[in-house]
Design goal:
Length: about 325
Amino acid sequence: MVGTVLGPIDAEELQGTLVHEHLYFSFPGDHLDPNDGWERGPELDKIAERLGEVKEHGIHTIVDPCPVECGRDPRLMAEASRASGVNVVCATGFYVEDIGIPFYWRNRSVDEIASFYLFEIENGIGGTGVAPGVIKAASGDPPTDLEKRFLEAAAIASERSGLPIITHCENSNGWDVQQEIFAKHGVDPGRCLIGHQDQADTGEQLISIAHNGSFAGIDRVGYEVLSPIEKRVELASAVREAGLIDQLCLSQDRICSLRSARFPYAVPDHLRDGFAQLQPWISEQMTGRPLSYIFTEFWPLLEKEGFTAQDRVTIFEKNPAKLLSGEG
């Protein structure tokens, strides 16, 4: 069984699945911006429309591992799921230290954090009745001591609840620290997706992740600002050639609705003069491209490298079902 925002479903009901997308994302504090013009009704319609786009490509489930402090809205997810007919799986878990982890939770022990995760898993999020189906675990580059505490909490909650873990690896680094901490706490590596491996130097890094038993995620497809599309083709091909395609997941980390009225990241001094020209290009990658981009633009490049229709079934159906349910 897999927990969705509308209740548990059997693994076979997942069908095609994108394992890392965001229906809605809000950077901490952006709702205070006087320029904030986000309106729930129109944005909900937009989210449902974008979910509908991928149904045409065989996708019937979206995993939205939005961290607790980044606008996670289980009611909005449930409404979008009903409106679109697409299953949505949400998460419990916090983001990286420099962007997230609210002050109050920075002062909690590992057991206290794990208990919070388990409370949401067992009782639902707030008063919504919506229970998370995955645990989000995030670390920066390199992972900080505070982030390691939250990785441990995620591992404890996963081991006790049986829920899978989906991770954020800043700059594709920290994956080894994540796997080490998860192993220390007895987490089944086959229930872990080590994410954001799009910036790995070579496919050997993803192969190492897979050899350790976890799924490797090339899950920021379309973010050329981080890595060229050809690099992602190279990484995916390396995993396939190593005979490990059954441990590869592809997704986009796309944001259907971003609340931030202004660019949410700090712009380095040396880029400020030219940023006005770069911003539309970056924003298009974050929020502009449809969820179907991975099928219309990226998959054809993989087909040229020999990826087959059966490989597509493995990557988008079999692997997510095994990750999310433990079955198969």
